[in-house]
Design brief:
Elements: H1 2-10, H2 27-36, H3 40-48, H4 57-87, E1 92-94, H5 97-101, E2 116-120, H6 125-133, E3 138-139, H7 146-151, E4 155-159, E5 165-169, H8 175-179, H9 183-186, E6 192-197, E7 200-205, H10 207-220, H11 227-237, H12 244-253, H13 257-270, H14 276-283, H15 288-295, H16 303-314, H17 320-327
Parallel strand pairs: 2-5
Antiparallel strand pairs: 1-2, 3-4, 4-5, 6-7
Helix pairs in contact: 3-4, 10-11, 10-12, 10-13, 11-13, 13-14
Amino acid sequence: MTDELLAHVGGWGLPNGLVSAAEPFEVSRHLSKVIGDRLTGVLHAAMVAGDIEVDEPDAVSHAHKDAMAQVLLLEDVMLEAYESLRAVDIEVRLVKGSALAHLVGNDPSERVFGDTDLLVRGDQLPAAATVLENNSAVRIQPRVSELFERRFAKSVTLRWRADTELDLHRTLAPGPFGLMIDSDDLFAATNTSTVSIGGVDVATFGPELHLVHAAMHAALGDVTPRLGNVRDIALLLGRSDLSNDRVMALAAGWNAEVPLARGIVAATKLGAGRSGLTDWADQYRASSRDRRILACYGSREGRFRAQAWASLRVLPWRERPAFVRALTTRRGL
């Protein structure tokens, strides 16, 4: 079946990944799905290694070349944005695809991504967006309000160089789980690391915070997560320098055990190695409160409205009036 074949590609090189699939890899049937799940680099590496046989290897090589051209463009854009923001003393962390490409796996070319993701402090988010707008970036969605961006928004999405997409994040997840994150933790010195991209040392997170973020993205982002995102979790779980205690402390501090457990379980099914964290995730049972919060992420239809009202319930009472005022400026609420 196609799902089994995709799991074989996504789990390639993982400790417990599928050793083989029940069907051959036919480019005409399966390549578009591999591209959609951001597994082009993995498929190409597995093909070159002789572990996965495909009927049209040139087509896979061309798809990989196209994906890498886009990745290099995105990294150039990221470096320009990163240095523009640092030049005006806006603190920045590189998150998601580009950071993970240089932190997990055997080779950065195995990790394909489709946009640029930078995290800034909430009180600097409006200013950061303005810096890039002054350099020709354009908001994809109109601003709700400066207050909403500083305190409640997940991110601001911009269209920039060569029609690329750049997300300026305030927090790690949409809706209530994002609002329960302590933003000071995201910029704590103990959570900071660097990756070298294009000769520039770019600030990012350590593996523990990346793991929690990757799990939240897989569990709370798309209704069905991309296998490339699930593979990130599996690879982070396999890092020898990962501190399980720090992972659990971060998740507990943000009430994020539910998405963490879900993300880890998904990675286990793809082929992640067993560990104390995978054992914990298998045994974890969400509270009724957490299940109610999680429900607002379960459908694409009406998702913003559901997350908005679930967010209202987790905010401190003193912040709820401002949140409601910001929401009511949006059409349909």
